[in-house]
Amino acid sequence: MPSRNPVFRNSQAFSPKGYASFNETAVPTASADQLERMYAAPPATSLDTGRMSIDDVVVKTGILFAVLLPAAVVGWLAESPILLWGGLIAGLVLGLVVSFKQSTSPALILPYAAAEGLFLGGISWIFEQAWPGIVAQAILGTLAVFAAALVAYRSGKIRVTPKFRRTVLIAMGGYLLFGLVNLVVMAFGGGGTFGLQSGGLGIVISLFAIGLAATMLVLDFDFAEQGVRNGLPERYSWLAAFGLVVTLVWLYLEILRFLAILRGTD
Predict the structure, then answer these.
(1) How far, CA to CA in Å, does 141 sit from each of 72, 144, 190, 219?
(2) Do the beta carbons of residue 83 and residue 118 sit within 8 Å?
């Protein structure tokens, strides 16, 4: 069962079944002396082999945030609806292109981070004006959930099994369906500030969404490790980092909305 993160969905590269060989040319048989020298040599690192490593994913994720955060500051200070909506649309388009093309090109992924930064900065400013202090709380909440998900995954308390993936798939489908219905309700002026996701029901749904985003992080960690085990080329670390950023942005927005509902939206 594939990951529900659009970056890894239907991706053979991050599949547990493995990844096709990158070099199908027959390798000549080594002599006894060559084998002895190979045995005595120090083990090759990912840098030597040109394969992806977890360190590569961490570094690329850091680079994406190094682009996203300054752009968010610009979006915050500009107080511009044009930058907010422009960032939202550009981020959505670039995100879909990267996801469906399974692109590992920094020329697409870095602009995505910049566009998301502009959008997040603008939307965060709007929330901050309505509920002072909410952005700092949402950032801390996002970091806490990320840390908890990472610890749970690394400690083995959460195991990514086929049943686990199926459960997340069903939950994700239900949440997406609710999101579509909620958009229709909001378009016709129904519900509260966030449509059906307001009041007591909104709190329950937001908690569910935050939990779902946390499980997506666990799947992202697992699929990144699966890519390393499959011996993917180093460039795929950009795609894995992109997937993590997509989930973290979603998690931050869900926590932001949850805190707004708690502090009163009607």
Answers:
(1) 18, 5, 29, 20
(2) yes
